[in-house]
Amino acid sequence: MIIPYFIIIPLLAAFLITLIAGEKDDWAIILSIIAVISLLILSLFSYITMHTETLSYYMSSWKIPVGIVLVQDALTSFMLVLVSIISLTSLIFSISYVRNLSGDWKYYSLFMLLVAGMNGVIITGDLFNLFVFVEISIFAAYALVAYGGKAEEFEASFKYAVMGSVSSTIVLLGIAVTYSAASTLTLAKIGEQLPSINSSIKLWIGGLFVAGFGLKAAAMPFHAWLPDAHSSAPAPISAMLSGILIKILGMYVLVRIFFNIFDAPQFFLNIFLIIGSISMIVGVFLAVGQWDFKRLLAYHSISQMGYIFLGFGLSTTLGILGGVFHLLNHALFKSLLFYNAGAVETVTGTRDLRKLGNLTRIIPTTSNTSMIASLAISGIPPFNGFFSKLIIIIAAIEANQPVYALIAVIGSILTLASFMKVQRYGFRSEKKADVNGKSIDWKMNFAMITLAVLCVATSLMIIPGIREIALDPVVDVLQNRTLYIQLVMGK
Amino acid sequence: MIVYLLCFILFLVGIYGILTKRDLIKIILSIGIMGYAANLMLILFAYRNNSIYPILSEGKAVSQMVDPLPQALVLTSIVIELGTTAMLVALALRLYEKYKTFDITKIRRLKG
Amino acid sequence: MNKEPGMTLIVKTVTRISVWLIILYGFYIIFHGHLTPGGGFGGGVIIALALLNVLLAYGKDFTRKWLNIKLLENFESSSITLFLIVGIIGMAVGGSFLFNFIDKGTLFNMLSSGTILPLNIIIGIKVAMSLFLVVLALAAYNFDKGDEQ
Fold first, then answer.
1. How far apart are CA C119 and CA C124, in angstroms?
2. Looking at this predicted complex, what is its ipTM?
3. Which residue from A422, A447, A468, C48 has the fewest beta carbons nearer than 10 Å?
């Protein structure tokens, strides 16, 4: 059984790095690259071979409902592949980026803890185990945001830490109420006992979980920490945070709890729709006026998360397909955009768009990949962003909610406008930017080119032949909602 | 019923502290109070009437016990909040060194 | 006001005697973790408090000379790696991760209930070292130079 290896391998790498790393960080780099590459191989293997069945693994051989169970089905394999791809490119990018900062082994150890925490959130089937892994990954994120040592990073990390602990306490209250109502902590058994719970307690539990995990996903009323934290972090960490952390800690947990366990009551789906549409509009309006490159990208993260909330809130087959596909696409092109911002900052030393210009001649790889990513995020035809946004808009029209479709189209047009501003001022204007002599390493170029190729390649996933194998099992897990409960309890 | 209400009032006191206090250390202490309120609610849900503590020792008669599972959850939660407090205090020290003040209205270089 | 670092002579003398008693009490709580309340975490905090007592009473320079900080850091890293290795051995022997492969013994003995005793000791050492090193790093932080010891 390969399920527990997804947690064991990064944890072992993190602890061994603290044990054997000396003054330089060579052993740290080698260990972490071995760990992430083995995670990628394992997750691709599980995605390709086992993606239509649900497997469960009992920790310490205690049966449910006494023990902790780890569950793997199509949705978890999909998320695991996403995490390992983004973390591999982020690790390769950060080898040369972090050498400019301070080049320590502590960075790699924290990075491995972040990956281990996120893998744990994905594969667990027990409510309190979920909470513990959420805390592990978010602590590593607090420490990594403050890694560079500048004043703004500490302020951003403090704000993030305070808001994160408020949300963790709210989630703990939700777990307390859930335990008193259902007297078990295994997710599948809570779903089994759901009809016997009072419906006002169900509203309490749902409300507490939406507030707690929605804050970690940067939904609209709780988004205030995201622009500071994602713009002050070092560039590969911003890519990890904005690409996968807010999706896994916020979106995946909410979808798992509300679709598979609570059987998607209409009240909470309406809340998802409203949160999604507000995030879309307000995020992109605040993003258009920004002159700081990374802050603009951070506001766009809020806006694109609105699309994913909208897709899941519609809860038809096409809507869930759009939500899942947009989750994958946004991780790919947002990470690529953050790598571009990091490369620009390494070469010119600033993030202000008014001071950049004419970078196409100096760093051609960065400029071309940023053009690909900007076209993808705005939804221009051959790239993957077009297909996922189109599916969400068609799903909104099919479900008789034309208002949300109109909001999605407006958001997409404004996204195009702001990224044209980035391209014009940042990369292709006529001014000469002052360059400080550092050049982009081949490792950074490799990471950016890999993600750009994947951006184009995943648009092939929408062809009906490939979609049957790749995306439909994932949608089926969320569409047949209570099948998850029967499959886990029956084993 | 009264005890649950009082526990919730403790939680609200913690949130009031985070929202209105201006000193960094007072915000950290209010986060601690909020964490204690959540732990207390977990233990309150574990009480059964006319039961004793859930430990079996030699020569004791077996009788009805309170629920021991939330006590393990609270132990884990206390460890997690200890880690959070340690990290927040380290960040507060670094902030004092960079900004020379503990006042949160003056630590505002990130805007917009 | 005394000019040497740390507290007054009375505090130093009492600390010299009581530190060893506190460490012994901490070990008692760790070793009986499967029979009485406490266990790894509580006992680890008590041992860390004993070492912090020395830090408070004598000042940070003396504590850093008296204790070998490199050794404590190695203890911390190796104990948490040992926890994972116990789990992997459980996986190799049979069954799943953290499977109980030691004999369960008779009730109320010290050497009973499987892998709980070694895991308690590992967690106790790890928690004690972590807490003490974190507070030592916070206390030994030099302000204006901005470097951390």
1. 8
2. 0.92
3. A468
